Amino acid sequence: MTPLQFETQYQAEWDELQSLLTKLSTRANQKNSPVPGERLASLYRRACEQLALARARAYPSHIVERLNQITSDAHQVIYQQREFGLGRLRRMIAVDFPRAVRAHAAYVAVAAAVFLGPLVTLGLLVYFNPELILSMVDAETVAQFEEMYSDSAEAMGRARAAGSDWAMFGYYIRHNIGIGFQCFAGGLFAGVGSLFYLAFNGALIGAVAGYLTERGLSSNFYSFVVTHGAFELTAVVLSGAAGLRIGHALIAPGRRTRTQALALAARESIVIVYGVVGLLLIAAAVEAFWSSARWMPLPLKYCVAAGCWIMVLGYLWRQGRES
Q1: Residue 24: pLDDT above 80?
Q2: Are residues 205 and 313 located together in one domain of the fold?
Q3: Distances 196 to 23, 114, 119, 123, 186 between C-alpha atoms, Å
Q4: Domain range spanning residue 37?
């Protein structure tokens, strides 16, 4: 491709990106003309690739300089931190987090498949062959699970050593964030670590569910996990998806160096990690103070659980879209 063909082919994209940047610079006077953030990010990524290509092919300096200028301006607009405190937090919750999840939909789909596949498979296998639970946990742990979800348990899902809901709240925070960190940080091992922790945790949950179902404790178990699961299981999948994004950047950096690709992947996925922490904190609170309550009627628990699942999935699907 000649420089003229290159410039002709991508001129419209550069003009569009420049137009969006100009609109953002005067945004205070154009509150009724929102800038499409997803389109801006897409054009920015493409311009970065085109800049790398123009440099590699030694295209004329005016092309390289223009691309360098608009990518630099776009980077400043996208990644600068001009707003702090509650305003910044509101934007991350209302816009940045759900948009980042949708932008990484392919990674989310892979992470969900890797997590849910072993969960369903082990659940069925252990249900029909209960002794297989011992391939995942030892006999003492199995006995603890039966005790925690028995009809005689004072509070469902609570270990005997835990004296209060607040003690369990602290335990759930540490436990849940530990799992999320494993699934994300495992991406540094070319994504293999993320795949392993997703599959392992899915298999463990499925095995426990299958065993307790076979033992006739399904009502206690599912009424306990179904509500906070909307936040916790979603967070585990999303943390794995963020880890897979990191791993993919290491394996296939494209035209960038691996360091550049890793830096870009980290910037793109860190918003998901922030959102995951929020989901896990909500999950810990619900698990400690709602899920374990025995006095709650089961129909009410299942209705609230359905509402939570609809809210979480609807939020990730719709929130932050341009009107």
Answers
A1: no
A2: yes
A3: 45, 9, 13, 18, 8
A4: 3-80
Single residue among 60, 80, 100 that ends a domain in this structure: 80
Q: Which two tokens stand for residue 199?
A: 């599959």
Helix (H, G, I), strand (E, B), or coil: what is residue 215? Answer: coil
Backbone angles phi, psi at 82, to 5 degrees: -90, -20
3 state SS of 306? helix
Is residue 323 a part of any domain in this protein?
no
Contact at 8 Å (CB) between 244 and 206?
A: no
How is residue 288 annotated by DSSP? I
Whole-angstrom Cα distance, residue 45 to residue 267? 12
User: What span, in angstroms and rounded, lies between the C-alpha atoms of 234 and 239?
Assistant: 9
Under 8 Å between Cβ of 110 and 198: no
Q: Which tens digits make up the pLDDT trace of 290-314?
A: 988 888 899 999 999 999 999 999 9
Establish if 145 belongs to a structural domain: yes
How many whole angstroms separate alpha carbon 198 and alpha carbon 187? 11
| Separation between Cα atoms, residue 182 and residue 175, nearest integer Å | 11
Question: In sequence order, what DSSP letters do the residues of 129-198 get, joined into one string?
Answer: SGGGGGGTS-HHHHHHHHHHTSTT-SSTT--TT--SHHHHHHHHHHHHHHHHHHHHHGGGTTTHHHHHHH
Distance CA 233, CA 246 (A): 20
pLDDT for the residue numbered 311: 97
d(CA 280, CA 235): 6
Which has the closest alpha carbon to 309: 223, 228, 201? 228
Residues 17, 101 within the same domain? no
Predicted confidence at residue 163, as pLDDT, reads: 60
User: Which two structure tokens, joined as six digits, stand for 216?
Assistant: 């006739």
Q: Could you tell me which residues come within 8 angstroms of residue 317 by beta carbon, excluding any fewer than 6 positions away?
A: 98, 102
Examine residue 85 and state whether it is found in any structural domain, yes or no. no
Higher per-residue confidence, 85 vs 255: 255
**Cα–Cα distance between 178 and 176 in angstroms, integer?**
5
